[in-house]
Structures are given as structure tokens and as C-alpha cells.
Amino acid sequence: MGNLLTKKLEQFVRFSPAERQRLDQLAEKRRKTYAPGELIFKEGKKAEFVLLVVSGLAARCKILSEGRRQIMAFLIPGDLCDVEGFVLNAMDHDIVAVTETVCAQLAVADVEELLTEMSALTRALWWSTMTESAVLRERIIDQGSRDARERICHLLYEMLVRYRVVGLANSHSFPFPITQEQLADATGMTPVHVNRTLSELKTEGLIRWKDKTVSILDVPRLKEIAQFDGCYLHLERTFQGDAEVAERAGDLL
Prior knowledge:
By secondary structure, the protein is an alpha+beta fold. The chain has helices at residues 4-9, 17-27, 108-115, 120-145, 148-165, 180-187, 191-203, 219-226, 236-239, 243-249; strands spanning 31-34, 39-41, 50-55, 58-63, 69-75, 80-81, 94-97, 101-106, 173-175, 207-210, 213-216. The protein has one domain (4-252): Jelly Rolls (Sandwich). The protein has ten helices and eleven strands. Helix 5 (148-165) crosses helix 8 (219-226) and helix 6 (180-187) crosses helix 7 (191-203).
């Protein structure tokens, strides 16, 4: 599978062999497995490590009164769980494992050293952080401006692009083992509304969701409904036509 963190970060900048080796070493740190539903980071606690998702699926979420939950973003393999989180005295949200999830525990000192350098690695890590913020802004737009079809189509299209970037999508299909309730928590909709909207998309031949895998059957149409503009993902090398990375997601943007 290779180092998925490197695959993701190289969408922004090309690394030298030495820089790739350094990232490989960083990603080979001690690993921990989390069961579905287990907290990876708890709100109010200080982060002891910077965690890299190696496999599985996790989510950033806030638990509101009476147990209500808002999922703000999904974290896939290659994603860092708040690279700057160790700076804060306490996390301001939970990160929970959606499926069985394996994370590499990166030492704070190693990440601090990278962030204080002037190198391609440093720029790439800050790029990753800025991209995560951009994804969160899209969820704000979901709640304020997009209707139900647009919200779901935009999220599914975004996930396809992100999985393609790290090489974990099969053409236009990607693993997305979430429940309709979790999708409702991520889109600010009710499970009933999610079910109705997904049924419409399936009936129209736009998507297939089977065996925890989403397949986009009509990519241009789904992108049109979502009004998807991939600029917020800042896939610089893809937009520049760099053949080494563009083949992963270039045809979707």
C-alpha cells in the first residue's frame, strides 16, 4: 500500500528521496487499534501524540445536549488527526473510530521539529492543515446553503476524490462503511430524509451503495448536482498537470 501520508502530501509538493524516507520513518511509529465507536481523541483532553490514520475510518464530531451528534469531517487513511493539536491545552472536539481503525502514534517532538524547519515537508504539513480547515468550511456551506441532494452529492464526490488521492478508490468506487444515521449526523439531516434522498439518487442511476462501498455511476451528473469545485482541496500538482499524481484524481476535477 505504501505510505499514504506521503501520497497525500505529494499532491501539494514533490519530495526528494530523503524527504520520502523521513516521512516513511515518521509513519512507522508505534500503532494502536481502535474498535468501532471507540474514542481516539476525547474533547477536553490534551493530545499526547499526533495520530496518523493508517487504516479504517474515523470522524471528527461534537456531542451536543441529549446525546445529539454532529460529524464535522471523516478521516481516511493518510489523514493526520490535528497536526497542531498538541499545541492546545485541550482538544475542542472528539475524534471517534467509525470502523476498526489503526493509527500510528507520531511523537510530538518529531512533528514539532518538522514544523519549525523550512522545508518541503514543513510546507506540506501546513498544506494538510489548511486543507482540513477548508473541508470544515464546506460543511458550514452544507448547513447554510446546500439542499439535501447537494449536501449528499457533494460529500460523496469529495470522499471519492480524497480516496483517489491516496490510491484507495477503485476507479469511481470507494469504501464508505457508514450508516445512514452517521450520514445524517454528517449532513445535518434526519435519517429519514437521508434515506429518501439516497433512494432518489439510486433510482436516478447516479450511485450504488452496496457492501459498504459507494460507486458513482454518473460522475459528471453527480458533480453537477454537487456544484463541486475541487479548488478547496488545493491539489496543486494535479491542477498543474503533474503526471505523477494527476492520474489519481485529475479526471475528477
